[in-house]
Amino acid sequence: MATILEAIGEDPTREGLLDTPNRVAEMYAELFSGVGSDPQDAIDAIFDADHGDPVVMRDVPFYSVCEHHLLPFFGTAQIGYIPNGKIAGLSKLARTLTLACSRLQVQERLTGQVADSIFKALNPRGVAVELKAEHLCMSMRGVEIPGNEVVTIAVRGSFDGAPLDANGLLAIMRRK
After folding, report:
1. Under DSSP, is residue 152 helix (H, G, I), strand (E, B) or coil?
2. Which of 16, 100, 137, 174 would be 71's cystine partner, CB 3.0–4.6 Å?
3. Would you say 49 and 85 are in contact if contact means Cβ atoms under 8 Å apart?
4. How far is 130 from 65, CA to CA, in rounded Å?
5. pTM of this prediction?
6. What's the DSSP call for residue 57?
7. Buried/exposed code over 66-93 (b: 16+ C-beta within 10 A; e: otherwise)
């Protein structure tokens, strides 16, 4: 970090910057605490369920850091699945998202990792994850388009015998 400060013309020994390298290291340790972890492990409360009605979490806030520019991207997630004999504790779905976010990411991979984790842990008939995010690498630099919204969607499962197909589940997830 001291080298970066010097490269941009700052003096890393001045009073306001003396502890900056340590603060940044601590921040990165926190932001990237998910490195080496499996997001599926966050789904550790699984219960038998005899229904197959959709389970949907809407507008779950998230943030992560783009691996290309080390700048944040943030937004909301819509997470839905159709049970097939098992349900998860609801907070576990949000924790899966948070754990997957806690590493260098690209939004496309993040969306798939969350969907894959839920699909592997619960074996539902189907799962859909939609992420909408603003990328500061596009807002603050480069094309400088503040308020940009990138949408990625991952769908897993066959939905055979489910009360909805993937489009129906996505429609419910998007309702306001």
Report:
1. strand
2. 137
3. yes
4. 18
5. 0.92
6. E
7. beeeeebbebebbbbbbbbeebbeeebb
